[in-house]
């Protein structure tokens, strides 16, 4: 076995263990810290693939800024008492199940339809990176070709923070 294979196996086991920690810890702060560890392991996977820019962005944005924001929201809004078995919205479970079924149906359609999503476009990101360069091509693709999804993601993060504020406020 080569060094790359051994380090991949070690990283895979460590990232799976930390990902299991995200869902198994009962304390929300411990889960968030385990998620930070999982994101750091993901950055190490990117480093193994010689994707230095994406690894640094992974650490700075996800493991740094967004997870610090999540930890701030969790620690500042953690209620003193927990009410178990009492949903705030009575139809919340039904909407969650319906959205889960829609997601499963959409993913099943994409997987079993036989269409390949990996076919490169004529002016796709891979062609821009080959012509211009890594960072400049990534910036051009992000702010020209993928501007709308980028802005929708930032809007969803703001909505998630506002939702945490609304659900976390004390009565």
Structure description:
This protein is mainly alpha-helical. The protein has two domains: 78 residues, Four Helix Bundle (Hemerythrin (Met), subunit A) (Up-down Bundle), CATH 1.20.120; 52 residues, no CATH class.
Low-confidence stretches: none
Counting DSSP H or I runs of 4 or more residues, the number of helices is 7
CATH superfamily of the largest domain: NADH-ubiquinone/plastoquinone oxidoreductase chain 6, subunit NuoJ
Quickly give the CATH architecture of the largest domain: Up-down Bundle
Structural class: mainly alpha
Termini distance? 58 Å
Query: What integer is the average pLDDT?
Result: 76
CATH class of the largest domain: Mainly Alpha
CATH overall fold name of the largest domain: Four Helix Bundle (Hemerythrin (Met), subunit A)
Provide the succession of SSEs: HHHHHHH
Give the overall silhouette. globular
Q: What proportion strand? A: under 5%
Determine the oligomeric state from the structure: single chain
Count of spatially separate domains: 2
* Strand elements, count: 0
| Estimated radius of gyration | 20 Å
Please bin the fraction of helical residues.
over 70%
Largest sheet: none
Task: Sum this structure up briefly.
The protein is mainly alpha-helical and 171 residues long. It has helices spanning 3-24, 28-48, 52-77, 92-112, 125-131, 134-145, 147-168.
């Amino acid at each position: 076995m080569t060094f790359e294979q051994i380090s991949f196996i070690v990283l895979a086991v460590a990232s799976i263990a930390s990902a299991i920690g995200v869902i198994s810890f009962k304390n929300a702060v411990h889960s968030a810290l385990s998620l930070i560890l999982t994101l750091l392991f993901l950055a190490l996977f990117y480093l193994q693939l010689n994707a230095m820019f994406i690894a640094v962005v992974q650490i700075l944005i996800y493991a740094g800024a967004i997870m610090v924001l999540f930890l701030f929201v969790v620690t500042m809004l953690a209620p003193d008492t927990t009410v178990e078995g009492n949903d705030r919205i009575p139809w919340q479970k039904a909407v969650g199940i319906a959205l889960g079924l829609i997601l499963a149906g959409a993913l099943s359609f994409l997987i079993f339809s036989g269409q390949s999503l990996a076919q490169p476009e004529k002016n796709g990101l891979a062609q821009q990176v080959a012509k211009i360069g890594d960072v400049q091509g990534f910036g051009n693709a992000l702010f020209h070709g993928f501007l709308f999804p980028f802005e929708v993601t930032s809007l969803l993060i703001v909505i998630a923070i506002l939702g945490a504020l609304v659900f976390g406020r004390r009565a």
